[in-house]
Amino acid sequence: MSEPISEPTGQPTEQPPMTLSQLRADIAAILDCDPDALSDDVPLTDQGMDSIRLVTLAENWRLAGYNVQFHVLFEQPYLRQWLAAFAEN
């Protein structure tokens, strides 16, 4: 007899560490810009990031298995700070 198919748990899967290039790609996709256009020296909020986009990104990353908190990203608006937030979790 075959085993029953289990239902998805909705739990995120573990992912390898976030890289700067992946972070840039994810942010650029939601901002509809080229990843190379994102500046390390300008807050992401000044590059088009808003709270709605940030909530969407944080949820997508959570579902992909990354443990990063919205409020941490919101309080630290620079690309390198976001990468550090991923490294801490």
> What would CATH call the homologous superfamily?
ACP-like
How many domains?
1
The radius of gyration over CA amounts to 15 Å
Q: Please give the alpha-carbon distance between the first and last residues.
A: 42 Å
Poorly predicted runs:
none
CATH topology: Non-ribosomal Peptide Synthetase Peptidyl Carrier Protein, Chain A
The secondary-structure class comes to mainly alpha
Q: Main beta sheet: strand number and arrangement? A: none
Give a count of the beta strands, DSSP E runs of length 2 or more: 0
Keywords:
89 residues; mainly alpha; Non-ribosomal Peptide Synthetase Peptidyl Carrier Protein, Chain A; globular; PP-bd_ACP
Short description:
This is Phosphopantetheine-binding protein. Pfam families: PP-binding. With 89 residues, this protein is mostly helical.
Mind explaining what this structure looks like?
- With 89 residues, this protein is mostly helical.
- It has a single domain, classed as Non-ribosomal Peptide Synthetase Peptidyl Carrier Protein, Chain A (Orthogonal Bundle).
- It is 46% helix and 0% strand.
- It is built from four helices and no strands.
- The longest helix is centred in the middle third of the chain and has 13 residues.
- The N and C termini lie far apart (42 Å).
- The model has no long low-confidence stretch (mean pLDDT 88).
- This is Phosphopantetheine-binding protein.
- InterPro entries: ACP-like_sf, PP-bd_ACP.
- Pfam families: PP-binding.
- It comes from Corynebacterium pseudodiphtheriticum.
